[in-house]
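Q: Given only this backbone (562 positions), what sequence would you predict?
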C-alpha cells in the first residue's frame, strides 16, 4: 500500500467529496424534476448522531415534485446511488431523515485530510496570494493617555484579523490614526502645564475638565527634568502648546511600546495634524466640492450626507474656519478608499454614530460597500466576584500594560478575542491566571503541550515514520471527530476574514483542544501495534500543527510544556 503521505497529493478531501455530492444531487434533481435548479448547501446537523453534514435541498423541490420533503429526499438519495455510485462510495452513510439528507464521510476521506495537514505543515490553510488589498485601521486612540483595556480589545481583534487575512492570501496594510488635531490635545496641554506648575506651587489651579490621572503628573516631572523652569514665566499660550506637543510625543511613544509589547505592529502611524498640514484634508474637501456634494450655510461648509442615508448633513468646516473632526475623516478615508479594495475600521464603543457617516462618505466618493465598520464593545474587568473600577476622567485608569503585567500577553489576547466584537466582554483577571481547565487559554495551550509530550515519549524515529504512515487504522469515533475538526481550519479562517469574526478562532482552538483531549482519553496513542501507533502519532502531528496555527493567528504562543 502507498503511504498516506503520498496519497495525500491526489486524495479526495472533505470539500472535494461534498462538492461531488452537490454536483451529483443537482444532476439527480434535474433528472427527476426537470426545469428546477436545486441549491445544495451544507450545515452541521443539530445532533451529532445524525451525521457530520446535512442538506435541506429536498425542501426546495417540494412544489415541483408535489411530494413531501421526506419522499423527495428518499428519491434523490436512491437516484444518486444509481447514477453516481462512485460519489456514494465517498460516504459512510447517506440517510434521508425528516426531509434532510444526512451525510457521514467515509473514514478514508478524513484520513486523507490528516495526511494533507501533516504534509503541508506550517503551510496548511495558507491560501495563494491573490492581490486583494485591505486597509485595516484599529486601536486608534487620542494621544491623551496610555492605552487602556478597550483599546487592548481592539488591538487583539484587529491583529487577529490581519494575521488571518495574510494567511488567506490578502495584502493587508495596518494603520493607526493619531487624533492630535482636536480640542482634547489642547486640554491635555493645559492639564500637563497645571501639573508642571504644581510641582513648585501646589495651589496652582487645575482645569475643571482636565485629565487628572497620575500619568499626567509623571509627564510633568519628565517635562521639568527636560526643561527645568523654562515654562514658569513664559506666555501661557506658548506654555500650553509646548506642553501639548511634549505630552503627545511622549504618550504616542508609550502607546507604540505598549502595542509592540502586545505583539502588534503597524505599517503606518498617521498623524491627523499632518493630514491637515500636508494639504490632504483640503484635497479631500476639494474632491467633494467637485462632485457637487458640499454647500455653504451661515459661513460653514457642509457635506450633503443626507443624500447617502445620514440623518443630517455634516459640517466639514465651521463658520470660524476651523475644520471638524469629520473633516479629517474625509481626507483619510478618501486616501484609503483609493488605494484599497476593502477598507475596515474598528472603532471604540462610543462611535456607533460614525457608522452611517463613514458609509455615506464611501458612497459619496464612488466606493459604496467598500468600507466596513466594526465596533469593539466595552470591557468589564473583574477579579473573581469583584469589579475593577475604571474611569479615565476620574483618573482611575487601568492600562493595558497593567493587565499584561498581571496576566501576561497570551491570556490577555485570548480573552479579548473570545467574544464577537459587538458583544460586551467581561474579563476575569483571576480566571486568566488559573492553571485549570476553566481557564480557556490554559486549556488550549495545555492541549498543545500535551501533544508535544506524547511526541517526545514516542521518540524521533516513530515520529518521523508517522509522517509517511498509512492512516487506515484511524477509524475510532474520537479519531474521526478530531480529524474532522482539524480539517475545518481553511474554511474557518476564510469565514473569519469574510465575516470579520476573529472570535471564531478562539472558539475553534478550544474545540480542537477538547477533541484532542477526548481522543487522548479514548485511544491509546502509543499502542503496541506499530501501524496503529504511527497512524495515531500522525493524527497528533496534525493536531499540533492546527493548534499552533490557530494560536498564532490569535497572537498567542503554543508552548511545548506547561
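A: Predicted residues:
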Amino acid at each position: 500500500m502507498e503511504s498516506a503521505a503520498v496519497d495525500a497529493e491526489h486524495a479526495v478531501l472533505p470539500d472535494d467529496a461534498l462538492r461531488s455530492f452537490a454536483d451529483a444531487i443537482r444532476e439527480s434533481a434535474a433528472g427527476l424534476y426537470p426545469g428546477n435548479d436545486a441549491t445544495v448547501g451544507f450545515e452541521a446537523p443539530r445532533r451529532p448522531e445524525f451525521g457530520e453534514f446535512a442538506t435541506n435541498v429536498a425542501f426546495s423541490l417540494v412544489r415541483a415534485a408535489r411530494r413531501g420533503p421526506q419522499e423527495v429526499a428518499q428519491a434523490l438519495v436512491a437516484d444518486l446511488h444509481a447514477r453516481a455510485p462512485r460519489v456514494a462510495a465517498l460516504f459512510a452513510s447517506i440517510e434521508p431523515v425528516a426531509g434532510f439528507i444526512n451525510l457521514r464521510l467515509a473514514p478514508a476521506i478524513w484520513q486523507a485530510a490528516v495526511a494533507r495537514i501533516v504534509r503541508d505543515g506550517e503551510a496548511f490553510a495558507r491560501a495563494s496570494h491573490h492581490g486583494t488589498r485591505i486597509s485595516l485601521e484599529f486601536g486608534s486612540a487620542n494621544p491623551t493617555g496610555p492605552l487602556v483595556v478597550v483599546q487592548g480589545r481592539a488591538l487583539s481583534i484587529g491583529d487577529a484579523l490581519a494575521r488571518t487575512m495574510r494567511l488567506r492570501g490578502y495584502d493587508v496594510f495596518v494603520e493607526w490614526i493619531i487624533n492630535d488635531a482636536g480640542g482634547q490635545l489642547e486640554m491635555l496641554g493645559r492639564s500637563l502645564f497645571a501639573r508642571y506648575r504644581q510641582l513648585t506651587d501646589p495651589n496652582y489651579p487645575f482645569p475643571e475638565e482636565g485629565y487628572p490621572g497620575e500619568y499626567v503628573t509623571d509627564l510633568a516631572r519628565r517635562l521639568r527634568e527636560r526643561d527645568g523652569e523654562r515654562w514658569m514665566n513664559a506666555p501661557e499660550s506658548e506654555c500650553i502648546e509646548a506642553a501639548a506637543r511634549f505630552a503627545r510625543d511622549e504618550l504616542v511613544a508609550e502607546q507604540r511600546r505598549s502595542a509592540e509589547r502586545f505583539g502588534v505592529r503597524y505599517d503606518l502611524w498617521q498623524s491627523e495634524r499632518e493630514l491637515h498640514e500636508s494639504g490632504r484634508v483640503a484635497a479631500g474637501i476639494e474632491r467633494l466640492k467637485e462632485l457637487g456634494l458640499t454647500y455653504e450655510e451661515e459661513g460653514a461648509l457642509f457635506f450633503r450626507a443626507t443624500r447617502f442615508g445620514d440623518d443630517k448633513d455634516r459640517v466639514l468646516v465651521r463658520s470660524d474656519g476651523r475644520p471638524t473632526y469629520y473633516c479629517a475623516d474625509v481626507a483619510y478615508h478618501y486616501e484609503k478608499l483609493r488605494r484599497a479594495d476593502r477598507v475596515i475600521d474598528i472603532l471604540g464603543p462610543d462611535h456607533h454614530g460614525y457608522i452611517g457617516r463613514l458609509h455615506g462618505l464611501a458612497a459619496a466618493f464612488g466606493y459604496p460597500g467598500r468600507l466596513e465598520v466594526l465596533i469593539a464593545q466595552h470591557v468589564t474587568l473583574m477579579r473573581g466576584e469583584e469589579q475593577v473600577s475604571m474611569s479615565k476622567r476620574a483618573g482611575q485608569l487601568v492600562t493595558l500594560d497593567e493587565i499584561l503585567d498581571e496576566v501576561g500577553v497570551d491570556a490577555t489576547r485570548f480573552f479579548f478575542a473570545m467574544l464577537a466584537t459587538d458583544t460586551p466582554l467581561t474579563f476575569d483577571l483571576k480566571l486568566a491566571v488559573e492553571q485549570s481547565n476553566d481557564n480557556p487559554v490554559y486549556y488550549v495551550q495545555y492541549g498543545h503541550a500535551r501533544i508535544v509530550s506524547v511526541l517526545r515519549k514516542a521518540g524521533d524515529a516513530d515520529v518521523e515514520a508517522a509522517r509517511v504512515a498509512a492512516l487506515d487504522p484511524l477509524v475510532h469515533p474520537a479519531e474521526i471527530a478530531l480529524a474532522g475538526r482539524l480539517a475545518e481550519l481553511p474554511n474557518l479562517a476564510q469565514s473569519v476574514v469574510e465575516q470579520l469574526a476573529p472570535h471564531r478562532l478562539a472558539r475553534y482552538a478550544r474545540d480542537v483542544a477538547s477533541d484532542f483531549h477526548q481522543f487522548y482519553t479514548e485511544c491509546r496513542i502509543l499502542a503496541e501495534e506499530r501501524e496503529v501507533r504511527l497512524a495515531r502519532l500522525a493524527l497528533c502531528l496534525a493536531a499540533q500543527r492546527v493548534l499552533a496555527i490557530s494560536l498564532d493567528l490569535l497572537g498567542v504562543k503554543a508552548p511545548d510544556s506547561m
